[in-house]
Amino acid sequence: MAKFKVLAMDNVSEKGLEPLRKEPDIEVVIGKKMTEDELVEIIGDYDAMIVRSATKVTPRVLENAPKLKVVGRAGVGVDNIDLNAATQHGVLVVNAPDGNTIAATEHTIAMMLALARNIPQAVAKMKNGVWDKKAFLGVELRGKVLGVIGLGRIGSAVARRAQALEMDIVAYDPYITSEKAESLGIKLVTMDELLPVADFITMHMPKTKETYHMLDEQAFAKMKDGVRVINCARGGIVDEEALYKYMQSGKVAGAALDVFEKEPNTESPLLALDNFIATPHLGASTAEAQLNVAIDVAEEIVEALQGKVVRNTVNIPSVKPEVMVKIKPYLKLAEKLGKFQAQLVEGRATKLEVTYNGDLAGEEVKPITTALIKGFLDPILQETVNFINAPLLAKNRGINVIQTVNGRAGGYASLITVKVVSDKGEHTLSGTLFQDNDPRIVMVDGYRVDAIPEGYMLYVPHIDKPMIIGPVGMMFGKYNINIASMQVGRKEVGGKAVMMLSVDAPVPEDTMKEIAGIDGVLDVKFVSL
Ligand SMILES: NC(=O)C1=CN([C@@H]2O[C@H](COP(=O)(O)OP(=O)(O)OC[C@H]3O[C@@H](n4cnc5c(N)ncnc54)[C@H](O)[C@@H]3O)[C@@H](O)[C@H]2O)C=CC1
Ligand SMILES: O=C(O)C(=O)COP(=O)(O)O
């Protein structure tokens, strides 16, 4: 009997699964289309699964998959996989980000040309027996402005091809440097600059909380009259209701969607509009792309099941298993320290200084730093941040990350200290693992504390004097918020001190204001971990 079973869903290219099939230890099962219930029923047998965009890897699926070690996404977007739940269950998520770039790029160009020349509408008429030459006066692309939103792999490949069509390109992408854009001969602009000048707008970013409904009513209102909009990235980036409204008003002359907020979708009111064209999420559907992504993901799954370093990990850093065993508890601690700092910092962060002391000094600490950056950016950028892009996103946001290792750790076996510098000040936080990998924050801004980094916390710098701790505690009583623990640290009697509290519920804004108003309280920060 094979040691590992792999479930391949969503019509992934069978030819591309050869790297799995040639392993004697691995059995591949081709799965049919299933409901969540059906998947939950069988997933317990599998060590790995491969999906495209159709199968949803939900927390419930993951809960029922005790053997599952890796989920491979044969493509780019992982928004159908619950990454947090996968991480919690220790399931590695890998993707194949390069194999379908050209397919999605060419589909975008095809959509743009089809829109400009009304090709789908003309074909439909001819097939209905109508030779209607005068209904379809098109526009040329040459000399038109193309606004590319999201200048990553696909966005930049689209831009290069559009340059060959003699279009002028402007692009918006807050996470790439102007040098990269310049090297492509493209002007980076703000959204507000792009919207009024673009004749065509094409979207090429992932779906995140930040990008959800990025083209909404307000954005459409700012666009040039007669604009044409293309989305071959993710449904939900464009607000379909707003698009409908602006197409009906005539402001938007045409739109082409390959992706919808709800998929499959044959019900959208947009489909009734003459100047609207659509494809059923075909961006990656070429023979070449499907073979490429299936091979990539199959190879990655072999690597993962054999305990090797895997290339495109999305949720967990890729390191050798023996290293992972040692650093794993620190990844969680570091992520929490980063998340804590993100909620303390005021202004624009410019520097993250991470220092490792004690036993950690001899370990491979780079993944721990990545976890810390991920934690720091998570509250700002939501799902966009993963172990692959975190360092790059920090760099693109102008955050200089400095990592230092140092032998001594005071009284601790190991210590991680992170200093965040912003244009408004700085904060320093140290954490360690007590026995049984129990995470603790042991120092805040130079004050000794002993706080478990979990749940809802408050950081309250104050003057060390009577009638502070009581009134702060009373305030929580007044609002019926239970205090789970409280720590006070000071350096000298009557000087500055800090209070760290853990509470059982989020603290409303008004309560925070009242606490800040207590005589002697210098500041209050609510932290949710
Ligand atoms: N229709 C289809 O079948 C296919 C769709 N896709 C989708 O296309 C999209 C782009 O894929 P790639 O180019 O490979 O990804 P990528 O990761 O190379 O590029 C994404 C770009 O979006 C930018 N971005 C992130 N947040 C942004 C924001 N708020 N505003 C503007 N830009 C932002 C990033 O900085 C990055 O440069 C993804 O959503 C992917 O899932 C990819 C392949 C096929
Ligand atoms: O790779 C992506 O992000 C895609 O959207 C491709 O989706 P698909 O694999 O064709 O369901």
TrEMBL record:
It is an enzyme of class 1 (oxidoreductase). It catalyses: (2R)-3-phosphoglycerate + NAD(+) = 3-phosphooxypyruvate + NADH + H(+); (R)-2-hydroxyglutarate + NAD(+) = 2-oxoglutarate + NADH + H(+). The keyword Oxidoreductase applies. PROSITE patterns: ACT (PS51671), D_2_HYDROXYACID_DH_1 (PS00065), D_2_HYDROXYACID_DH_3 (PS00671). Residues 457-529 form the ACT domain. One of its GO terms (molecular function) is NAD binding. CDD domains: ACT_3PGDH-xct (cd04902), PGDH_4 (cd12173). GO terms for biological process: L-serine biosynthetic process. Its EC number is 1.1.1.95. Pathway: Amino-acid biosynthesis; L-serine biosynthesis; L-serine from 3-phospho-D-glycerate: step 1/3. It comes from the Bacteria. Transmembrane segments: none annotated. SUPFAM superfamilies: ACT-like, Formate/glycerate dehydrogenase catalytic domain-like, NAD(P)-binding Rossmann-fold domains, Serine metabolism enzymes domain. Pfam families: 2-Hacid_dh, 2-Hacid_dh_C, PGDH_inter. Keywords: Amino-acid biosynthesis, NAD, Oxidoreductase, Serine biosynthesis. Catalyzes the reversible oxidation of 3-phospho-D-glycerate to 3-phosphonooxypyruvate, the first step of the phosphorylated L-serine biosynthesis pathway. Also catalyzes the reversible oxidation of 2-hydroxyglutarate to 2-oxoglutarate. Belongs to the D-isomer specific 2-hydroxyacid dehydrogenase family. This is D-3-phosphoglycerate dehydrogenase.
